Amino acid sequence: MLPSVERWFASHTWQQPSWSVEELVALKRGRTVSVVLPALNEEATVGDVVSVVKPFVGSLVDELVVMDSGSVDETVVRARAAGARVVLRTDVLPWLEPLPGKGEVLWRSLAATSGDLIVFLDSDLVDPDPAFVPALLGPLLTGDVHLVKGFYRRPLRLESSGGGRVTELVARPLLNTLRPELSGVVQPLGGEYAATRSFLESVPFAAGYGVEIGLLLDAHRRYGLSGLAQVNLGVRKHRNRSLLQLGVMSSQIMGTALARCGVAVSPGPLTQFVQVSDEWLPDSTDVLVADRPPMMHVVEQP
Ligand SMILES: O=c1ccn([C@@H]2O[C@H](COP(=O)(O)OP(=O)(O)O)[C@@H](O)[C@H]2O)c(=O)[nH]1
Ligand SMILES: O=C(O)[C@@H](COP(=O)(O)O)O[C@H]1O[C@H](CO)[C@@H](O)[C@H](O)[C@H]1O
């Protein structure tokens, strides 16, 4: 790693975050905290994720919101039953036709919440750890950073590691090539992170899976490494998607990262191949790489 990255890694990485909830509550000093869970058809896991955050509501956490992304299963029912406020994509900025994607609901969550600090947790976490929330908030409440990324060991199905496939095969090589200053970020794509509202409302949001790498690149461009921190969250298990699904995700991530790094791209459909009987046939998927504008520029209904 570059010497500047080594210095940042040493000073802005918490390998064993140990802030207590009581300590962090005292450090809020009037600042409020929103926890946002993006959810698309997560009926099997959303309730557990809500349940591990719920005990913090009223002290460390001021609001807990599940942003539903157009689920057609029992996600909304399960999230409400577990104690979250559920916001549908169309409940906020209703005059804007929703774009498909995770980033769309994270962007809309800015209009659905009011916290000065926002924590994002995926809704597909398995055995979620309650310590995620205080650990992610620690650097924001004790320092002057604007984006805190979680990192962890990432099991893959029955294996104890091997997860984070797009991270290791796409995002990390891309960042090392295009933005080596970010080569010290352990989990650039991780869905567990926290940030200041002032930062989040000042940058565009990639509507799809490019949202995390877009925010990371924008935070780095805006604040430099000193505006970023990362905390060890231990282990993170989640529903692992298929390689073909990750291929589409990777296209969105590449499109967003290249655009943020000044490489003009307009990814067309992604053609993959599936076996049908004894033949391998092409299967094309449109890849949406689009940004929503900074929320601070979005006026009320025109
Ligand atoms: O269009 C989408 C796609 C994903 N998600 C949510 O974003 C999180 C991460 O998505 P996913 O699990 O598909 O990504 P992975 O973790 O497999 O990379 C999960 O809570 C999804 O329910 C969403 O709200 N809308
Ligand atoms: O990190 C990764 O490589 C991908 C896929 O993880 P797995 O190989 O299924 O463990 O998961 C992440 O990528 C998405 C796009 O940034 C994020 O939205 C997810 O929260 C994150 O899990």
Automatic annotation (TrEMBL):
Domain of life, source organism: Bacteria
Entry EC number(s): 2.4.1.266
Ranges for domain Glycosyltransferase 2-like: 34-151
Known cofactor(s): Mn(2+); Mg(2+)
Gene Ontology MF annotations: glycosyltransferase activity
Family assignment from sequence similarity: Belongs to the glycosyltransferase 2 family.
Name of the featured protein: Glucosyl-3-phosphoglycerate synthase
